[in-house]
Amino acid sequence: MSPRIGVVTFPGTLDDGDAARAVRFAGGEPVALWHGDADLKSVDAVILPGGFSYGDYLRCGAISRFAPVMTPVITAAGAGMPVLGICNGFQILCESHLLPGALTRNQSMHFICRDQRLRIENTSTAWTNGFAHGQEIVIPLKNGEGNFNADTATLDELEAEGRVIARYVDVNPNGSQRDIAGITNARGNVVGLMPHPEHAIEDLTGPSLDGLVFFSSVLNALVGA
Amino acid sequence: MARVVVDVMLKPEILDPQGRAVQGALGRLGLTGVADVRLGKQFIITIDGDVAGERLEQLHALAAELLSNPVIENYVLRVEADA
Fold first, then answer.
1. Across the interface, do B14 and A94 touch by the CB < 8 Å criterion?
2. How do residues B55-77 score in pLDDT, each as one tens digit?
3. pLDDT per residue over B22-49, tens digit each?
4. Into how many domains does chain A fold?
5. Which stretches of chain A sit within 8 Å of chain B by CB?
6. With contact defined as beta carbons under 8 Å apart, do A90 and A194 qualify?
7. CATH label of the domain that carries residue A210
8. Single pTM value for the model
9. What's the gap between Cα B63 and its chain centre?
10. Domains of chain B with CATH codes
11. In this predicted complex, what is the ipTM?
């Protein structure tokens, strides 16, 4: 039986459809999860997809963090369940304190939408184990508030522990400190990523097939577990 | 009725691109000598009854947990007795 990967829909989520499709392409079984239900439906992993949950009111992810579904997500993440937050999902993970730091307004003030080159720097997480260390990939990036900020001590800790999973290459699109595109928690089961792997899983619509590896990685992690 | 006012500002070390954009516009509109502009949020919460003791503590906790993000923001809370 293929692993069941939950994809949460909040009011204002946009990329739940593509995330579920990416799970299916990778060979997993996507399971729709609803923000208002404190029920993970016995899934093996959870994806918080991109979008503008609650209209980005207050701060991006600040209200979603208190949605009923987040209570079991936070508990499960603490117990080691793989959780991936993409874009708005990354913001929700930071607001939930599952990941350190915060994502603030792009330095340029512009909403950026481009195919972005990244370098994968940690291949031991649940979501990146299928990459080669230092591998460069190209996936879409689209955000207005993707500027990763944390205090120097936190940044140094992330670097020292190898918890920066991906860095922007060629250009830093949003002013993120130390070119950070994605990070993980100490255990490596929770990953936040600003660019969108779910939009790079097939030739017809994506700039590459690189995104699919995030989804096949979690299936590897779950099957191997 | 009590009125609780919570001001939330980005910490001084966090870049405020919106403030910078407003600073530019002020300059274009002829205001000289603008050294810096910072934007913040103000929450005005009207509450039945008095705000003190446990309720005030609860408000402080929520100001830190929901209304602001302590990673990037500071808040100041004050209670104005008669709304």
1. no
2. 999 999 999 999 999 999 999 99
3. 999 999 999 999 999 999 999 999 999 8
4. 1
5. 58-59, 62, 66, 94-95, 100-102, 104-109, 147, 149-151, 175
6. yes
7. 3.40.50.880
8. 0.94
9. 10
10. 2-81 (3.30.1280.10)
11. 0.85
